[in-house]
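Suppose a colleague, Dr. K., hands you the sequence of a protein chain of 187 amino acids and asks what its three-dimensional shape might be. Before reaching for any lab equipment, you can write down a predicted structure in token form. Begin with the sequence itself:
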Amino acid sequence: MIKIDSDVSASSSGSIYGPRDVMLLITRMLWYLRRHLYSKVAFTILEMLLVIAILGTLAAIVIPVYGEYVDEARKVRAMVEIRTIETLIERYERAHGDLPVSLDVIEELTLEDPWGTPYQYLKIRGSRRGHAQGARKDKFMVPLNTDYDLYSMGKDHDSRPPLSAAKSWDDIIRAADGEYVGVASEF
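The predicted structure, expressed as tokens, is then:
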């Protein structure tokens, strides 16, 4: 509390405080603020280090979880886009009587996968003995599709025709003639 002297006398201007009293009051208020308020606001180095450690721990937990969330969202987006491309290919086939030779002939299509690489397409139907060169194969070396292959090369931007190759595990594929769209490692 601020203590005010009781021997304050009235000045000639009618004020009960004189200039000396006002200066004393200001000095005591500053002393009080400096003594009590600043000491409650100030942080010690130990408190600052504790806050930094807590923030670092939270960041170490949140950043990987956020990265996994973003990666999962990209996989889902690639699956949805493959289904969309599949619909556009079916529309093209109905209009022209045959599958497109490449995705470039589908005018409405300008999609890249979520990792920035173009979707891969290979027409299989109509090729010699139904097996096109470079067709995707499962771990038993059986072709994934009989009509066409459509896939994203995934996060690593690299792929190999057999799904048993490690470079293909992160690919988002269309398999079993469209019955499955998902991560290659899960097929």
